Amino acid sequence: DEVLEGVVEREARGAGGWGGGRGGERGGQDSPGSLTHRPPGGGDPVTHTFTATDLADPAVRPRAGECVDFRLATDKTTSALHATRVSRRRERGVVATVKRTDRGCYGFMRCLDRGGQVFFHGSQLPRGADPVAGGEATFVVAADDASGRSVAVSVELLPAGTFPAAVDVPGELAGARLCRAGRRRARRFVSWHRRP
Prior knowledge:
5-stranded mixed β-barrel; mainly beta; 5-stranded antiparallel sheet
């Protein structure tokens, strides 16, 4: 029951379910999705299929190009391996900037797992959540419907100190230090050091 990481190549369409086992589509309306992953220990990429019923949350369908977590299962009818409990991969990040408007807020998250930044909108935060620069969060990176750009969705703000004190950020930044400063209010700030 090992959790594996993969990338969606083709998203599953339709209500899920298969007519006559995993070998065919029901009524020509449903189509399986596929994802690719590298087996533990290396080797060539492997592709597995999945349907809407194989999603951990049927209301959240991973799109092509999105990173997912999944498990492998064996079809009882065909004995073929397929992906199951497919879910979007949650990433770690730090709120880089926050802009407030009369209708809410928006800003950018610094991705700790992949480097770079992604946009977030206040509508993706839990009701009443108040993001601050330097705050820690987890989120799912998805493609925006309108622009196609990567955005942070399903943002969850975390208590201060959730991530290790020193986090290595791939790419242009390294050694993110999360610190406390000030006497009256312990304010959090992030100090990023550029790689040489």
